[in-house]
Amino acid sequence: MGIIELFHSNKNQRTDEIDRGLPRAVAFVDYEHWYISLKNNFGMKPNIKGWFEDLKSRVTLTEAVFFADFSHKSLADEIKRIRLYSNTIIDTRNVGTNVKKDFTDFIILDHIYQKALSANDIDVFILFSGDGHFSSVVSFLKNFRGKEVGIYGIKDSFSRQLKETANWFVSLPTESDQYGMCASLIFDALKEAQLSNSKVLPTYKNITDKILSTKRVNAQRLESVLKKLISDGVITERKINLTKKDNGKPCLFVDWEKAEQFMNFDD
């Protein structure tokens, strides 16, 4: 098991949060659950920045510990994204055995119990996991340590028992996350079409077909987002005449200044 410790100075931010009277909290993140469930269920990457912003509105976060078997390449590539926000990343790989996920859970539980018995100044325990096996430790924190417990989990991979045991829970991705992801895919596809000088025109159908053929995304949601972007004037449809005889094909054009907020949504 390897440990990567990363230090950041958040002193000024924490002082502001304490001044607002927010309870002190620590977070334990099962990043394998977050990353794999989000990718499999929604074709998305974790919005780490958005999660920290949500936490900031609820608590004064003193520590956030991320756990995963980072021997998998896809997860190893996530370390550079996590280290922008976390002060501790724990690699749970168990060299020489085939035990992976259960061992990760065991390590998370060990850290939670140690913190619960040693940190009397912590008011709220945050857990990011959908695994119902954590219900027992949530009950322990509430009933025997008098702590508030909040749970974050991924929709369709979130134990009902775990939700009911916690004081509160948040299911991700949010509607805003899903809208942003679809918008980002649309703009990336339109930019690619523009740069490639492709003979395939960036029509409504061509762009949606291209995205749906390469990305895991709900077709109805994608079309709903595209229609909203058009109605908001971020994307416009204008006819292009390929020849003097045709009536023109309605193609999509982007106001890139308005679209900037959606670009590289997953980075």
Provide keyphrases for this structure:
267 residues, alpha/beta, 7-stranded mixed β-sheet, two-stranded antiparallel ribbon, disordered N terminus
Helix content range: 40-55%
User: Element order, helices and strands?
Assistant: EHEHHEHHEHEHEHEHHHEEH
The count of β-strands is 9
Measure the end-to-end span. Answer: 27 Å
Class computed from helices, strands and strand pairing: alpha/beta
Report on the biggest sheet: 7 strands, mixed
Low-confidence stretches are 1-12
Mean pLDDT: 87
Envelope shape: elongated
Beta fraction of the residues? Answer: 15-25%
Number of helices: 12
> Looking across the biggest beta sheet, what order are the strands in?
1-4-3-2-5-6-7
**Cα-based radius of gyration, to the nearest Å:** 22 Å
Protein described:
By secondary structure, the protein is α/β, with parallel strands linked by helices. The chain is built from twelve helices and nine strands. It has helices at residues 11-19, 31-42, 48-58, 73-76, 79-82, 101-118, 135-143, 160-165, 175-196, 204-214, 219-231, 256-259, and strands spanning 2-5, 24-30, 60-68, 88-91, 124-128, 148-154, 168-172, 235-240, 249-254. Strands 1-4-3-2-5-6-7 form a seven-stranded mixed beta sheet, sandwiched between helices. A two-stranded antiparallel ribbon has the order 8-9. α9 (175-196) packs across α10 (204-214) and α9 (175-196) packs across α11 (219-231). The two termini are 27 Å apart.
